[in-house]
Amino acid sequence: MLTGKQKRFLRSKAHHLNPIFQVGKGGVNDNLIKQIGEALEARELIKVSVLQNCEEDRDDVSVALAKGARAELVQVIGNTIVLYKESRENKQIQLP
């Protein structure tokens, strides 16, 4: 689990990132979770945007993605979800 201080640090790091995944009409599926898991291994911190045509609630989407990719949910702001997962081989972010 992340502390409040760590989440604040990650939020500041994520501020300038652009969403690299979009959750739309299809919702959350295994393929999307697999791709997000791979992106987290490479980058550690990513943004996912929830499109207007997504039928699931964005909070449900955020929980499903975090659980599926075994990642930490840093923040849900508007229709954007920020996820963090420490990389095994490619560690870049040093948490406070």
UniProtKB/TrEMBL annotation:
Q: Which UniProt keywords apply?
A: RNA-binding
Sample GO molecular function, one term: RNA binding
CRM domain location is 1-96
PROSITE patterns, alphabetized: CRM
State if Transferase is listed as a keyword: no
Q: Which Gene3D superfamilies match?
A: YhbY-like
Q: Which domain of life is it from?
A: Bacteria
Keyword RNA-binding present in the record's keywords: the answer is yes
Q: Which PANTHER family match?
A: RNA-BINDING PROTEIN YHBY (PTHR40065)
- Would you tell me the protein name for this molecule? Ribosome assembly RNA-binding protein YhbY
